[in-house]
């Protein structure tokens, strides 16, 4: 646990890079405004990923440089927001999403980072719908649902 606490956030500082599954899409994120990565256990993420949760990191979209052919998936969220998720047109790996309600920001799918195996997730949202077999480590910060404003995001997840 001390190990995790010490490293928290360090793995997402500075310039970051990543790619889709097949490598046709590559990106870099220059150093800039970003929040710490978190896991979202909501039902939408489970459906969208076909998995138990998704790993996101909020960043300023102007910091991203991305190459390769992208396609997009659209979703009108029950909250009223409209979500567009971008990924590789060839292998369909998803890279990042934007939400019409959160101008200037985007949400990275952290598993696409070149250093994704170094990630040390400390924050979990929508634990109300977390699959029961997933145990969270001691000291994990959890929220039953999710932050409702930019300020709440910054306060809960924290700046990386
Ligand atoms: Zn690809
Ligand atoms: Zn979610």
From TrEMBL:
**InterPro entries from the UniProt entry:** CENP-V/GFA, Mss4-like_sf
Source domain of life is Bacteria
Which Pfam families does the record match to this protein? Answer: GFA
Q: Which UniProt keywords apply?
A: Lyase, Metal-binding, Zinc
| GO terms of molecular function | carbon-sulfur lyase activity; metal ion binding
What region holds the CENP-V/GFA domain? 16-134
User: Keyword Repeat on this protein?
Assistant: no
PANTHER family reported in the protein's UniProt record? CENP-V_GFA DOMAIN-CONTAINING PROTEIN-RELATED, GFA DOMAIN-CONTAINING PROTEIN
Recorded family membership: Belongs to the Gfa family.
Name listed for the protein in its UniProt record: GFA family protein
Q: What's the source species for this entry?
A: Erythrobacter insulae
Taxonomic classification: Bacteria, Pseudomonadati, Pseudomonadota, Alphaproteobacteria, Sphingomonadales
């Amino acid at each position: 646990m001390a190990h995790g606490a010490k490293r928290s956030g360090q793995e997402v500082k500075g310039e970051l890079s990543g790619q889709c599954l097949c490598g046709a899409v590559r990106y870099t994120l220059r150093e800039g405004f970003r929040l710490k990565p978190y896991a979202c256990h909501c039902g939408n993420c489970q459906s969208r990923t076909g998995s138990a949760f998704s790993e996101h990191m909020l960043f300023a979209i102007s910091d991203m440089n991305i190459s390769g052919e992208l396609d997009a998936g659209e979703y009108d969220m029950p909250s009223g927001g409209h979500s567009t998720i971008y990924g590789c047109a060839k292998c369909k790996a998803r890279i990042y999403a934007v939400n019409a309600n959160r101008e200037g920001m985007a949400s990275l799918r952290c598993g696409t980072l070149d250093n994704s195996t170094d990630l040390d997730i400390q924050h979990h949202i929508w634990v109300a719908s977390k699959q029961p077999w997933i145990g969270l480590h001691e000291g994990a910060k959890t929220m039953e649902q999710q932050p409702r404003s930019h300020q709440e995001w910054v306060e809960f997840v924290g700046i990386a």
